[in-house]
Design a protein that fits this description.
99 residues; mainly alpha; 0% strand; disordered C terminus; Sigma-E factor negative regulatory protein
């Protein structure tokens, strides 16, 4: 139950950071900020916003984005996602094979 409360608090804090908190939830969000976890979430959401609003780095080499995308695509899927992907691929193969 604590995990659900923490998740809800983070959602409230996120909405507050974005200026999209409904008036009915404002008091709950402010109460969530009065905890160490709430203050940490507030700081993290603002750091994320700063990064998203920042100008792209200008010192990247030509083709960096394409090379990074290719390397990420070549990475194996971690644990559970890999098993699900393999299972889905196997099902697709079986479904496509009319024999």
């Amino acid at each position: 139950m604590a995990m659900d409360t923490n998740k809800k608090n983070r959602e409230l804090i996120s909405a507050l950071c974005d200026g999209e908190i409904p008036d009915v939830d404002r008091e709950l969000a402010l109460a969530a900020l009065d905890t160490p976890e709430g203050r940490q979430a507030w700081a993290l959401f603002h750091q994320i916003g700063d990064v998203l609003r920042a100008d792209p780095a200008t010192d990247l080499s030509p083709g960096f984005t394409e090379r990074m995308a290719a390397r990420l695509a070549a990475e194996p899927l971690p644990g559970k996602r890999a098993a699900v992907a393999a299972d889905a691929a196997g099902q697709a193969t079986v479904a496509a094979d009319p024999t």
